[in-house]
Amino acid sequence: MQLKNLGIAMVIIGIVMMAYTGFNYVTTEKVVDFGPIQVNKEVNHPINWSPIVGIVLAVGGIVLILTNKKTT
After folding, report:
1. Residue among 12, 14, 23, 9 at smallest CA distance from 57
2. If you average pLDDT over residues 31-36, what whole number do you get?
3. What is the mean pLDDT of residues 23-27?
4. Any idea what the Cα angle at residue 41 is, between residues 23 and 44, rounded to 5°?
5. I want to staple 18 with a disulfide (CB 3.0 to 4.6 A). Which of 10, 12, 54, 59 is the partner?
6. CA distances (Å), 70 to each of 50, 58, 67, in order?
């Protein structure tokens, strides 16, 4: 039963990773701090992955689901 749940989760994550190949997050860095005057800079940090990773996860999840059905 746990392998089936893991397989389902892997398929869902794999499909999401195929649909969205990355995301960005923004941090704020202090550039100047001179008493009451502060200058901040927003920096984008992209996180990208290949859609092949999503395909591998989805196929691995399907294999887990199918092998779990055969053993029960």
Report:
1. 14
2. 88
3. 94
4. 10
5. 54
6. 32, 19, 5
Query: Between the CA of residue 38 and those of 27, 28, 31, 56, what are the distances in Å?
Result: 16, 12, 8, 47
Contacts of 66 (CB under 8 A, 6+ apart): none
Amino acid letter, 41: K
CA distance to 7, 17, 28, 40, 59, per residue, from 52 (Å): 17, 9, 32, 37, 11
Q: Given this model, what pLDDT does residue 69 score?
A: 72
Q: Token digits for 7?
A: 């397989």
Mean pLDDT of the chain: 90
